[in-house]
Amino acid sequence: MQPFIFGAGVLFFLLALGLGFSVFEQVRSRLPPSLKDDLTARFAVDVFIGETWVPVRVRRQYLASMIFLSATLACFAAYALLDGRRLLALALLAVCLIGLGAAGFRWKKYRELL
């Protein structure tokens, strides 16, 4: 069971990474020139993701990447729990819930644009 849970966590992480990078590149290409450098663009994506000039598909990918990252943390929390590391599992689960809360907050904020 543990290899399956670990493999699922890695799969969810790769999905979140791919979607997140895709969103980053698509939003960064439309940012003003002063915000296109790598460091500033990382923060600007979170700010500008709700703008009407960002396509709906990109917003959905952004939300999906947040959910996949939370699923990654949930899988690794389950793996840690089965391995006997309760404190690590609790910490990972707490971060997972924070991520799901952030995704839910963004969905509620932008649901009419999705």
Descriptive keywords:
114 residues, mainly alpha, 4 helices, 79% helix
Please summarize the sheet with the most strands: none
| Total number of distinct structural domains | 1
Can you give the helix content as a percent range? over 70%
Mean pLDDT: 90
Overview of the molecule:
- The chain has one domain (2-110).
- Helix content is 79%, strand content 0%.
- It is built from four helices and no strands.
- Helix 1 crosses helix 2, helix 1 packs antiparallel against helix 3 and helix 3 packs antiparallel against helix 4 (86-110).
- It starts with a helix and ends with a helix.
- The mean pLDDT is 90.
What is this entry, summarized?
The protein has helices at 2-28, 38-48, 56-82, 86-110. The protein is mainly alpha-helical. Helix 3 packs antiparallel against helix 4.
